[in-house]
């Protein structure tokens, strides 16, 4: 996940617009709050392909993003402060 071309590790709490470019029908993009509350949303799902824009309010805590069918190898984390 990148913001202004740089890999995201930390964000300030607030509302963000995610632009997901899903190029393969075997992938999806899910955003989940791991620590500090509960949030789980499939921003894209299998077999969707294309570009999708989603606005999400991020609150303090540890967040994870991943591809549901390939979560063990396609994932990342960032913290919201």
Feature tags:
81 residues, mainly beta, 9 strands, 59% strand, globular
Could you describe the 3D structure shown?
The chain has strands at 2-3, 6-7, 10-11, 14-22, 29-35, 40-44, 50-58, 61-66, 75-80. Strand 8 and strand 9 form a beta hairpin. The model has no long low-confidence stretch (mean pLDDT 94). The strands form three sheets. The protein has a five-stranded mixed sheet with strand order 3-9-8-5-6, with no helix packed on it. Strands 1-2 form a two-stranded antiparallel ribbon. Strands 4-7 form a two-stranded antiparallel sheet. It is an all-beta fold and 81 residues long.
Q: What can be said about this structure in brief?
A:
The chain is mostly beta strands and 81 residues long. Helices cover 0% and strands 59% of the residues.
Strand tally is: 9
Strand order of the largest sheet: 3-9-8-5-6
Quote the distance from N terminus to C terminus: 17 Å
Largest sheet entry: 5 strands, mixed
Structural class: mainly beta
Number of helices: 0
The average pLDDT score comes to 94
Mind telling me the C-alpha Rg? 12 Å
- Uncertain residue segments: none
